[in-house]
Amino acid sequence: MAKTGKPLVIVESPTKARTIEKFLSGKYEVLASYGHIRDLPNNASEIPEAVKKEKWARLGIKVDENFEPLYIVPDDKKKRVAELKKALKDAPELLLATDEDREGESISWHLIQVLDPKVPVKRMVFHEITKDAIAEALANPRDLDVNLVKAQETRRIIDRLFGYSLSPLLWKKVAPRLSAGRVQSVAMRLLVERERLRIKFKLSQYWDLKALFKKLQKGATPDRFEAELTHIDGKRVAMGKDFVPETGQLDPKADVVHLEGPAAEKLKQDLLAEKATVTSVEEKPYTTRPYPPFTTSTLQQEGSRKLGFAARRTMQVAQLLYENGIITYMRTDSTTLSKEALDAARATIARDFGKEFLHPEPRIYKTKVKNAQEAHEAIRPAGADFPTLQSVRERFGDEAFKLYELIWKRTIASQMSDARGKRMSVDVKVGVASFRATGSTIEFPGYLRAYVEGSDDPDQELADRERILPELRVGENLETSTLEAISHETQPAARFTEGSLIKELERLGIGRPSTWATIVDVVLSRSYAFKKGTALVPTYLAMALTQLLEQYFKDIIDYEFTARLEDDLDAISRGEAHNIKYLQHFYFGNGHPGLLKLIAQGEELIDPRLINGIPLGTAADGRNLEIRVGRFGPFLSDGTQRASLADDLCPDEMTMERALQMLADAAKGPDKLGEHPQTGQKVYLKKGRFGPYIQLGEQVEGEDRPKMASLLPGMEPSALTLELALKLLEYPKSIGKHPENNEDIIVANGRFGPYIKCGSETRSIPAGGPSLIEVTVEQAVEILKSPRRRGGRTAAQPKILKDLGKHPSTEAPIVIKDGRYGPYVTDGTTNASLPRGVLPEALSLPEAVQLIDQRAATAPKKRGAKRGAPNKRAAKKPAPKKAATKKAATKKEPKAPKETVAAKATKSAKSKKKGPAAEPTTA
Fold first, then answer.
1. Tens digits of per-residue pLDDT, 197-245?
2. What DSSP state is assigned to residue 203?
3. What is the band of 842 on the pLDDT scale with cuts at 50, 70, 90?
4. Among residues 545, 581, 631, 775, which one has the fewest Cβ atoms lying within 10 Å of its Cβ?
5. Helix, strand or coil for residue 210?
């Protein structure tokens, strides 16, 4: 019987669905899967009852049966799956339009396995969401690329094996709730190795001289210029590059003069009496070429440098631009531009900059990417007529505009003319010393007129790049106006930022465009690193874990091994390697111990007492000092005495002198402020991981903890008196009865500062309001009358905290408001609470759109809503009335046969085989 409905198109996100739907003229139904619709179980509750007792159930992979995975549809996806199945019933055709990379291919494969379509299935792929690209994709569909799926599923299984095998070992040997990720562990190792270099580094000082010379005869050009000391008696003066980066000490092989302070001052005085003469004048032309268009890595690096975006934020904004048809696909290694892009860029250059800025021929950039299936076009403005900067600002707000401006400028600059200029150098002899001055002029800015890497203002950058020297001739005498002795200090290796870490991962061949931002995010979110400014600082926990992995899992976190794994996955995706053999070698070994054996050896050999200690050194009195990682954080120890450490202490700041002082302070014990006048208990001022606090009495084993009180915001420990400490220890306390309901008014100092509680009502004492200690009943009543606050005001009269702009699809204004239960984002129809820990001022438009769309997709239908009324945000279908039984939930799904997906879809149900869906991990 012929199907009467529209062909069904499935994509990952509702934003992408809405954008595509606009180009299909109502002839197709477009729905979103909201990412993956099934995965390996996340916890015990998701494991089907039928297999819970199996040994492999927790792992979710049958390692002895060709690594067959156990896939489940999570509870939060079951409704979506039901809606997709219902939509498919009347559809004559299914088109899968997920992203054209490994993960997108995997999402499509899982959709086929779960939906089990009985209609023709086509794979629809495109690199940009424009009308022409969608038409092209419809006209030229392909079958599912099973090799791409195998590569992605192999990665998923390897990561599962690594994490679920190694994490329990870390819980036993280091601390509970730790997580071991295959690539995150390698990234963590990079941060730790850089910090170790900084710890070993010893600061050195070196000096040089800076001179200001003046022409004796004025001319048309400037008559003054600066020059730096380069040689003394023909021997080069030491510079920063002559010091060993790892130690900060002068390289013994360097044949240089190491100028120190007194010698520099003496040389300065001697040279002031000498004549200055020009000994050399050189002028050479130079040419620089533009950078290639953005790849994922270079976009993340520039987003960090220029915009201060975290890698995750850059990808979120780029995803928003891609899904709305503004840029091409944002996960790519390729620097290639299509003919359409080349034509559009060159037309823009000729129109906006002039033909002289247009390179004579289209510039073609080569990429080193091995996997052509993932080497899409570079990230560029979409379409044959690039969206304007102003239109993007109006539709998506400032963040999207700023990132799009980078992409637009970089794309345009890549097709512009070379920049041309002249570089000049002048050598000046003054007694035994030689000085050099360098300068440059830009004769033609070329591509620099549009884009300068690391600069937001090309015009200003052009001015800064020019340094004009006066017209000079060899033998010309000069006046030495000033001489200045300048000291320099060697600098340790810079810590990684998000951008530079991603650049290093890319250089090592570790990870892929779709994973870099997640890698950085995981390292930060799991307390393996924290940010100091933009720098990533590893924690002592990260240092202990890296120490363990280097000793017992060296091969697995080896940089080359991890990079080879990426190459092997690429080979699997091209059909050149066998995925099951690779998994067997990884887990069981192949000429080297596999993961299984390494875990067993770790269980037997790893001594927690040794692995959790990070040696600091030996003190003058013979004590061995070390940092130990305990269950409640890091602490300093000499074997007898301990001192707790702040979580945000940079490891390279822990010197021997500082450590000895901390131990000495700890040995003194807490500061005794006095005794409680009624109980006689001692009152102490102590310092903990989270700052100073007051303690009443001693901790007695087996008894309740003594009473403690935090200091009030802004209160300095040095100003604390016994009288004030005793007052703080009184809280929480009642200050009186509420005149209206006669309930106690309780005043307390909580985690988020001082607050007032009366019955079920709670209010923070506002900044600038009365002190906790001095607040009166009348003041408390007035504060309780104010709207409930949790970062915001009442739901009855919500205050707008931030205007984010318009929803890219509905054009509805999106704002952040203050609600009774905290800040929330709304488009006037759908409200979505901000996630815990997210500040209103930090929320971006792309993040707000995502929150609203997710809420719209999962929110229950309001009572009284008109039946059959369409959802503007996502064409959702009601879930089937019949609930899935346990038997149905654990039903094994069919394997994908070897013939094409289209052929599979037309086969009868009789040909289906029972058994887990594990085709991608079989031969």
1. 999 999 999 999 999 999 987 765 678 999 999 999 999 999 999 999 8
2. -
3. low
4. 631
5. strand
Asked if residue 134 belongs to a domain, the reply is: yes
Specify the residue for token string 């499509």: 108
Report the CATH number at residue 183.
Answer: 1.10.460.10
Domain that holds residue 801: 775-880
DSSP state, residue 706: P
List Cβ neighbours of 454 (8 Å cut-off, separation of 6 or more).
302, 305, 306
Whether residues 693 and 604 fall in one domain: no
Give the lowest-confidence range in 186-190, 366-370, 598-602, 918-922: 918-922
* Distance (Å, whole) CA 160 – CA 59: 8
pTM equals 0.76
| CA atoms of 655 and 283, how far apart (whole Å) | 49
Considering the domain architecture, whether residues 310 and 396 belong to the same structural domain is answered as yes
Q: Which tens digit of pLDDT belongs to each residue from 65-123?
A: 999 999 999 998 999 999 999 999 999 999 999 998 899 999 999 999 999 999 999 99
Distance CA 623, CA 232 (A): 47
Query: Residue 25 — φ and ψ, nearest 5°?
Result: 55, 30
In a domain, 770, yes or no: no
As a whole number of angstroms, the distance between CA 60 and CA 245 comes to 47
- pLDDT tens, 21-80? 999 988 999 999 999 999 999 888 999 999 999 999 999 999 999 999 999 999 989 999
Q: Do 306 and 456 touch, CB atoms closer than 8 A?
A: yes
Do the beta carbons of residue 377 and residue 332 sit within 8 Å? yes
Question: What is the set of active-site residues?
Answer: 329
- DSSP helix/strand/coil, 385: coil
The total number of structural domains that make up the chain:
7
Cα–Cα distance for residue pair 214/204, rounded to 1 Å: 33
Q: Residue 422 above 50 pLDDT?
A: yes
What DSSP state is assigned to residue 58? Answer: T
Instruction: Report the alpha-carbon distance of residue 628 to residue 815 in Å, rounded.
Output: 47
In single-letter form, the type of residue at position 286 comes to Y
> Measured between alpha carbons, how far is 136 from 379 in angstroms, rounded to an integer?
19
Same domain (yes/no): 309, 451? no
For residue 416, give the DSSP letter: B
218 plus 185 within the same structural domain: no
